[in-house]
Amino acid sequence: MGYDPVKFSAPAIVILTGAGISAESGLATFRDSGGLWEKHRVEDVATPEAFGRNPELVQRFYNKRRRRLGEVSPNAAHRALVELENRWPGPLLLITQNVDDLHARAGSQNIVPMHGELLKARCLACGAVSTWEEDILPASHCRRCGQPGQLRPHIVWFGEMPLELDRIYTALEGCSLFIAIGTSGTVYPAAGFVEAVPRQAHTLEINLEISDVGSCFKERRQGAATERVPELVGELLK
Ligand code: BJW
Known about the structure:
Blueprint: E1 13-17, H1 20-23, H2 36-39, H3 42-45, H4 48-53, H5 55-68, H6 76-87, E2 92-96, H7 102-106, E3 111-113, E4 116-123, E5 129-131, E6 151-155, H8 165-173, E7 177-181, E8 202-207, E9 219-222, H9 225-237
Parallel strand pairs: 1-2, 1-7, 2-3, 7-8, 8-9
Antiparallel strand pairs: 4-5, 4-6
Helix pairs in contact: 6-9
The protein binds ligand BJW.
């Protein structure tokens, strides 16, 4: 997504979201008090080695989170980003670290789920990625090659390469406004995106608190995503 002045009449925006944007929908974040990493060790559930050692434990962790998606809905922050995408006269790319489907369900179109998607499974035998809304069980068969016991969650674990990085860095290098919402700035490469935008671009962080990379942003707005994001979208569309 490069900025094409013929096609677009406004500057390019790139938005990065993290678990904080879905917190008010009722999904736990990772590192806040009561977050997922308080109940599960990263090394036990979010690395390829963990999956190799104990696939049942890892599948249970993701099956539970996949089921939980049916109980939650997009919130005012997700919806405000849809309004921005629909009405902003320039290019807009939404990069999410979240594996939930709340941006898509709210109606966002131009999304890069860089850490994968809970509602997809990947076959270790043939590489097929398919939509998967139910539990992944030891006997589950790949819909393409038919092999049983070869499906893993389509999730980017620690030590694995995030998805669509070429598309992401092209957008970052061409943007005039970079906004990070509800992310702790602890996981790379996403935490470093703020440093990949042009020097003259405006950078803005929205978070309940200042993130680990908060000092890299030109502007910080503290508060709940459901309040700060609709406010910001209102200002941008004024
Ligand atoms: C609110 C709110 C409200 C709450 N309103 N705000 C140095 C440099 C580069 C890489 C590394 C490095 N050292 C180590 C690495 C590797 C590693 C890494 O970063 N480790 C760190 C722990 C140091 N990274 C990787 O392994 C990545 N791959 C990789 O690097 O490949 C090689 C490569 C190198 C260079 C370039 C390119 C590639 C892969 C990372 C995979 C992360 N996977 C996870 C789990 C899987 C998904 C899942 O199960 O859901 O993804 S980890 C977990 O953290 C999850 C998240 O997407 C990710 C980020 O978390 P997030 O979203 O920020 O959530 P929280 O909980 O941390 O923060 C929530 C925030 O919201 C808080 O700040 C709150 O204040 C706020 N908040 N309520 C507003 N209502």
